[in-house]
Design goal:
It is built from 9 helices and 9 strands. With about 300 residues, the chain is an alpha/beta fold. A hairpin with a 2-residue loop joins strand 2 and strand 3. Helix 6 runs antiparallel to helix 8. It starts with 5 loop residues before the first strand and ends in an 8-residue tail after the last helix.
Length: about 300
């Protein structure tokens, strides 16, 4: 008798900074999405693939749903909302709290309009007592008729196996979409650009990171395949930001480059020669043409 496979799509949604990318990286078993403690870290939808004997889950990690303040913000919200209509199950990540703010209320309204099953995933359970988790479940239950509720800690990998079991309940029967060794559909150039952006997000002060993008100018493997040359430009919006990114005698840019190179070498499994530049492009977040140039897809504007 032929083995039955279940294959389908699961969207990870939630407000910025609830741990969507951390959870996805944990489930996949390697780093694909960048993480930082700053909101709006994820800008595009990132697709990763989890394969095991039961079948295949294709995870879509979306930008956090928030009130857009510019073209980039509108783009990010459009990406997140469009994903909801394309998946078999929605995973709504929240923090273990009984306070349900306006942002969460807005997401609940959008989810109530969907026919897709919604699983409430209460993340960061390692940070609170069990009673707090139960209170949080009770508060969220009043908003939506959830298909399932799963408390997890993405950081500590607590209860993540249970979450995978729950996801499989809502996937249709069908063959795998990807080869079993596929982990992501992200092009290497895009992941490399995101690694640089992640290191910059982590090292720079709060007012700058939203105003930066990273453009890979060149990525070429040397003959013999033991070294990859990567030239990249960090785009910022102001002269003052450029100064901070470069730092005193180039110290900050060097720090970003060193940390990014280590991440790239782990990803590409080869030595990397990374060269970084910084350029100013005023108000690039308001320019559709520039956003497209930096890899944001036309269909999400």
């Amino acid at each position: 008798m032929d083995k039955i496979y279940y294959s389908g799509f699961a969207a990870l949604i939630g407000r910025p900074n609830v741990g969507k990318s951390t959870l996805m990286n944990q489930l996949i078993g390697q780093k694909i999405a960048i993480t930082s403690n700053k909101p709006q870290t994820t800008r595009n939808r990132i697709q990763t693939v989890y394969t095991e004997e039961r079948g295949q889950i294709i995870f879509l990690d979306t930008p956090g749903i928030h009130r857009a303040k510019n073209k980039l913000g509108e783009y990010m919200v459009n990406v997140a909302e469009r994903v909801l209509m394309e998946v078999d199950v929605i995973l709504w990540l929240v923090e273990p709290t009984t306070y349900i703010g306006a942002g969460e209320q807005a997401i609940a309204e959008k989810l109530n309009a969907q026919k897709t099953p919604v699983v409430l995933v209460i993340n960061k359970i390692d940070t609170v007592k069990k009673e707090e988790i139960l209170k949080s479940i009770a508060a969220y239950k009043e908003l939506i008729d959830f298909a399932d509720i799963v408390p997890v800690s993405a950081l500590k990998a607590e209860n993540t196996n249970k979450l995978v079991d729950v996801i499989f309940k809502y996937l249709p029967e069908g063959p795998m979409y990807y080869d079993e060794d596929t982990v992501t559909d992200q092009p290497e150039r895009q992941i490399v650009a995101e690694i640089i952006r992640e290191k910059a997000l982590r090292l720079l002060s709060d007012e700058i990171p939203h105003g930066i993008a990273v453009c890979i100018e060149r990525m070429r493997e040397r003959t013999g395949g033991r070294l990859i040359d990567i030239d990249a430009t960090i785009i910022c919006e102001r002269e003052s930001h450029k100064g901070i990114i470069i730092g005193k005698q180039g110290a900050m840019l060097k720090k970003i480059g060193t940390q990014a190179r280590v991440g790239m070498e782990n990803l590409l499994d080869t030595k990397v020669n990374l060269k970084l530049w910084v350029k100013i492009r005023k108000d690039w977040r308001e320019s559709e043409a520039m956003l497209k140039n930096f890899g944001f897809k036309d269909s999400n504007f």
